[in-house]
Amino acid sequence: MNIMGIVLAAGQGKRMKSKLYKVLHKVCGKPMVGHVVTTLENINVTRSVVIVGHGADAVQSYLGDRVEYALQEQQLGTGHAVLQAKALLGSEEGLTIVICGDTPLVSEETLQGLIQLHQQKGAAGTILTADIDNPRGYGRIIRDTNGTVKRIVEEKDCNDTERLVREINTGTYCFDNKKLFEALSQVKNDNAQNEYYITDVIGILTSQNEIVEGYVMQDAAESIGVNDRLALSEAERLMRERINRKHMLDGVTIIDPAATYIEADVKIGADTVILPGTLIKGRTTIGEDCVIGPQTDITDSTIASGVTVKQSVVQEASVGNGTSIGPFAYLRPGADLGENVKIGDFVEIKNAKLGDEAKVSHLSYIGDAVIGRNVNFGCGAITVNYDGFNKQLTEVEDDAFVGSNVNLIAPVKIGKGAYVVAGSTITSNVDANDMAIARERQVNKAGYAEKLRNKFAAKKRASKQNRE
């Protein structure tokens, strides 16, 4: 079966009160129109056409060649918007899903159910509907005694009986493609807004004795269309619950789902535990048997299995099996940690590769470096990678020891098994198995501390007298 999709994404979204085009506002880390397009891809549509208008360049920049585009230069209603796809899809045989770009919660299971009913009934059009407790403001679905849809009645046109109907139009449809465009050619704009509405297609099809059905979605929350920031926050909450629920059903332990924020494209392995206050964003992948959190922020990173990350920030980094991070560590873009590495408190790693079993336990900065296996960095040791003009490379080979408060002035290389004494400032290469010490010899001056105290006290008295 040839299935196509038309995504309505031409509206400006004034109620969002934002410089950002409405369908590009994010829900769980992904623009709303991205959720819709992904859902269409997951039901194997052969072609998707996104109707763009305001913000067309921004939408095209985001979606790229995943879809085709049709421009609605003037916003003259939903029917007019769909009609803009006629040049691309009008001659195609098959089914077309029409869906709004601001409905990110509609699931692939719901669309599959819509298509299945449409095919089973041999319908020309099928409306995705929802049964809600408070239908005020929505178009009502009016059915005949056989359950077939007769018409959609807008709120302002409902009589007393129709106003009691709880089944509403969600604005998503499945049509026989050719019958859709044939009916669209007959839609008129003789209404108060002088616009062409897709809902009029339903009336045209029923007047031609075509079968029109309604598929009631199982979860009415999917019907939310985002028109303002309040609806955006509600969609975010519902999407987050859906994402967390899926991870938990797949074997992930989330201690407090209400305090855990996992974005849509994140993948997490079984038996991993996510502690409260954790944000996992972008295209992050986390393996099995990890403990993540609490209060941890991970973005676009790859975390292997058996990893612990406590109260830390990880951005565009790669972490090997069995590695521990934190608390209060910061892995910046380009951090690449091997297996069983230890990154302790207040350690920052940037654009650096650390070999297996390396240890940077506390208060250190490693940037623009290649660190070998089983290297130990003492407390406060850093790579001095920037000379004010260029970033320079530090290399530390396997089994080397770098003592506390050592400055490695790049470019510099520390050889295999070398030992750098605490407090040294290293400006030259250290060969394998050598010991390097680069610090001033200590000098003790007998009794001089008392002289200093007397000197400082005299200055303090003089300063006080001058003020008086």
UniProtKB/TrEMBL annotation:
PANTHER family: BIFUNCTIONAL PROTEIN GLMU, NUCLEOTIDYL TRANSFERASE
Nucleotide-binding found in the keyword field: no
Binding annotation for UDP-N-acetyl-alpha-D-glucosamine: 8-11, 22, 72, 77-78, 139, 154, 169, 227, 332, 350, 365, 376
Region annotation (Pyrophosphorylase) ranges: 1-229
Organism encoding this protein: Paenibacillus allorhizosphaerae
Cellular localisation: Cytoplasm
Catalytic residues of the enzyme: H362
One Pfam family per UniProt: Hexapep
Domain of life: Bacteria
Top-level EC class as recorded in UniProt: transferase
Cofactor note text: Binds 1 Mg(2+) ion per subunit.
Entries under NCBIfam families matching the protein: glmU, PRK14354.1
Protein name as catalogued: Bifunctional protein GlmU
Pathway terms, separated by semicolons: Nucleotide-sugar biosynthesis; UDP-N-acetyl-alpha-D-glucosamine biosynthesis; N-acetyl-alpha-D-glucosamine 1-phosphate from alpha-D-glucosamine 6-phosphate (route II): step 2/2; Bacterial outer membrane biogenesis; LPS lipid A biosynthesis; Nucleotide-sugar biosynthesis; UDP-N-acetyl-alpha-D-glucosamine biosynthesis; UDP-N-acetyl-alpha-D-glucosamine from N-acetyl-alpha-D-glucosamine 1-phosphate: step 1/1
Region (Linker): 230-250
Family stated for the protein in its record: In the N-terminal section; belongs to the N-acetylglucosamine-1-phosphate uridyltransferase family.
Primary subcellular site in the record, as a coarse category: cytoplasm
Catalytic function, reaction form: alpha-D-glucosamine 1-phosphate + acetyl-CoA = N-acetyl-alpha-D-glucosamine 1-phosphate + CoA + H(+); N-acetyl-alpha-D-glucosamine 1-phosphate + UTP + H(+) = UDP-N-acetyl-alpha-D-glucosamine + diphosphate
Co-factor requirement: Mg(2+)
Residues reported to bind Mg(2+): D102, N227
Region (N-acetyltransferase): 251-468
Keyword Repeat applies: yes
Residues of the Nucleotidyl transferase domain: 5-217
Key words of the record: Acyltransferase, Cell shape, Cell wall biogenesis/degradation, Cytoplasm, Magnesium, Metal-binding, Multifunctional enzyme, Nucleotidyltransferase, Peptidoglycan synthesis, Repeat, Transferase
Matches recorded under HAMAP family: GlmU
Binding-site positions, acetyl-CoA: N385, Y386, S404, A422, R439
